[in-house]
Amino acid sequence: MPVPNSQSTQKLPLRGNFCVDPNFQFLKMVNLLNLDRQGLASFFAELGDKPFRATQVMQWIHQQGVLDFDAMTNLSKALRQRLKEITCVSLPQVQTIQASSDGTRKWLLQVDSGNSIEMVFIPEDDRGTLCVSSQVGCALDCRFCATAQQGFNRNLTVAEIIGQLWLAEHTLRTEGYRVDKCSQAISNVVMMGMGEPLTNFNNVVKAMNIMMDDFAYGLSWRRITLSTVGIVPALARLREQCPVNIAVSLHAPTDALRDQLVPINKKYPLPELLAACHAYAKGKPSRHITFEYVMLKDINDSPTHARCLAKLLQDIPAKVNLIPFNPFPYTHYQRATPEAIDSFRDILMQARLVTVTRKTRGDDIEAACGQLAGKVHDRTHRQNHVNVKESYT
Ligand code: SF4
After folding, report:
1. Is 145 one of the catalytic residues?
2. Which of 93, 180, 196, 293 has the lowest tally of Cβ within 10 angstroms?
3. What's the pLDDT band for 5 if we cut at 50, 70, 90?
4. pTM of the complete model
5. Ligand 1, closest atom to CA 138?
6. Tell me, what's the pLDDT at 79?
7. Domains, the chain, ranges and CATH?
8. Where is mean pLDDT largest: 10-14, 20-24, 95-99?
9. Residue 161 CB less than 6 A away from ligand 1
10. Catalytic hit among 85, 88, 118, 242
11. CB of 131 sitting under 6 A from ligand 1
12. If we measure between CA atoms, which residue out of 378, 362, 308, 295 comes closest to residue 335?
């Protein structure tokens, strides 16, 4: 939904690096969705305007859902004209929307000419949760994950991440959907869609800061959960810069099994990962860490695995989410039986671990956990990305 620009670039006053490409050949529109409040304040300062314009524009775009600069009536006419000339508000394009019989909704969103991502809305009695993607595909190759089968293309920009929340919030609000006693449609965000958020650290943190900004969506950190396989150095940075809740995709209680299911475990084995989780949980405010454990038949679902997991987590303020595996085409894994899941849960609870079996939502539209695939056309970047990630970490 870009705001079109048809102005000539010749007469525009160009300031800083916001508007011009490195060769000064052509005007690049600044997508305002890429900027958090601080970025917007710098942008307006470069335009020679007041920093408080940042809060005004944020409120229009994110709180009110207004994309038409002419409707931003507390901005001067001259500023509105300037914004039309050099900026845009460009969102991912909706390709399809699927609705599940349980109310879950899945959007396929086009982010460029070759690639699409998926986001999922899960309504419950007291909350509306949006599952947001952070990358086109994923480079980490977890064996039980549909996204991994698609390969990896690129990181999403801040605009493409926050644009998912914008689309869901304002679409649902327009339809009249509201969470109880709340003016918003989305009360919770889980960074659990396509991709490993911590390998797109800067863009994800900036987008989460916009989610938490009182002039945008005003979500408390308690209502944002970032799911990670455990990129250990990035966990420490996250604790410093944007300490939201985390859910660690564990899936195995031993290094030998986790090496097979979650290959990044070879780089960050369980002792390192659990030490990082300990550190994340400490401090103010202290918090529980959620551990996700996908239940795979005859792979990781035995009572022995459960006892081993209980021992592994005994010293951590942990909550365990057991996720019945959601099959996708061509996988050879199967969902653990309900009896195996129940007895696994009972063993963990006897060890005083808070344990919840996640309800499967949206599996009739392949929107359940681990089933998101989107359309990832370029599959050649996985190794490049892993190399970049290695140097980053
Ligand atoms: S489980 Fe998460 S990190 Fe692993 S491949 Fe899937 S999207 Fe990537």
Report:
1. no
2. 180
3. very low
4. 0.89
5. 8
6. 96
7. 1-90 (1.10.150.530), 93-392 (3.20.20.70)
8. 95-99
9. no
10. 118
11. no
12. 295
